[in-house]
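Run Taurine---2-oxoglutarate transaminase through structure prediction, thanks.
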Amino acid sequence: VGAGADDDARALALDRAHVFHSWSAQAQLSPLVVAGGSGSHVWDHAGRTYLDLSSQLVNTNIGHGHPAVVAAIQEQAARLATIAPATANLTRGLAAERVLAHAPEGFTKVFFTNGGADANENAIRMARLHTGRDKVVSHYRSYHGNTGAAVVATGDWRRVPNEYARGHVHVFGPYLYRSEFWATTPEQECERALHHLERVVQSEGPDSIAAILLESVPGTAGVLVPPPGYLAGVRAIADRYGIVLVLDEVMAGFGRTGRWFAHEAHDVVCDLITFAKGVNSGYVPAGGVAISAPIARTFDDRVFPGGLTYSGHPLAMASIVATIDAMEAEGVVEHAAAIGTDVLGPGLADLAARHPSVGEVRGTGVFWAVELVADPVARTPLPPAVMAQVKAGMLARDVLPFVQDNRVHVVPPCVVTPDEVRTGLAALDEVLGEVADAAVT
Ligand code: PLP
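Sure, done. The structure for Taurine---2-oxoglutarate transaminase is below.
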């Protein structure tokens, strides 16, 4: 904690004068000042503390200030703070080994990147070179990052003003609550979504399709846990047409769903896995592509035409090794699973039962969405002005929510305690009663 309220004012003034923010009209911003954090909490300079149900951008899976990870970064900084990617570096090798230890059998290599977007960018590049094909099929309800191909593979609104890359095709994935397929059961939704995907593949010309790129659990789009059989069905389609299957585990991976990788719950093995966020909880920017043997072999004697100055950056690598070690030693992934089953899932189901504004809650582990509606029968989304009040109501109660469209995503760190979950849900309970239910017609 610095000089208190003066530093908060200074932080905000400097920010407004000079910092250009993501995805925003700059003149309309008034960002929260954050000076420090520990575990599931962050605070400003004056000492006002917030419970973080957002994990920032759903990435602080081990919470803030994990001492072993901080120490590992400090030690690495003192030993070797940076080194070119063409060198061999022990910390980098250990980080790759740690990641692969949690990937399916047959994954042999890791290409490290600076974050999730460039992980997807390079996975797409690998798939195109491996297959000699061009097109990438992904979901409309998705986000894959903000770089050239990744943002056009993205399905949500962020694609549209950035649509400069070619060769991208989108399909609707399963989302029973707002089914595009007139489905009334998960089985129907699954079968019809797979039929739609296969028909699009056939119509686009299977020989032109390099990759199907999907989030294992679409995250920002609403924590759309796929119905049983969907991802396995996608795998079968990919196999039928010689298409590379890339699963984006950037948000869903490393404990978020109560598993190391979300796809483990779905009986599917893909060809490339992209990761970032939870791999080191964002202590140092990092991401990567885990590569299965056949695709890795493509580049044994053929140049891979891609690279980054900071690929395998020592500070990022040290933080990955320490994060994965800490998660293993402390049972963080198992803890996230238990929080979902024992506390968060039942707590949210209780809110859904008592609040008419809750259309649906869905999720697993510490990865949940609460979908708010103005009309529970028509499922009309709660309008943006009311969602803004929901967000403000949570902040007024010292809880940071992740509000997206008409949803509150309840995505605390994997290390969140049962008491912290109860505190967060109590705030949500009050806000739903005061703000959201009052808007139900
Ligand atoms: N993929 C998914 C599923 C994401 O949620 C995100 C970021 O939110 C990305 C990719 C992009 O990651 P980054 O912002 O690190 O580039």
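Residues 67-330 form a domain with the Aspartate Aminotransferase; domain 2 fold (CATH 3.40.640.10).
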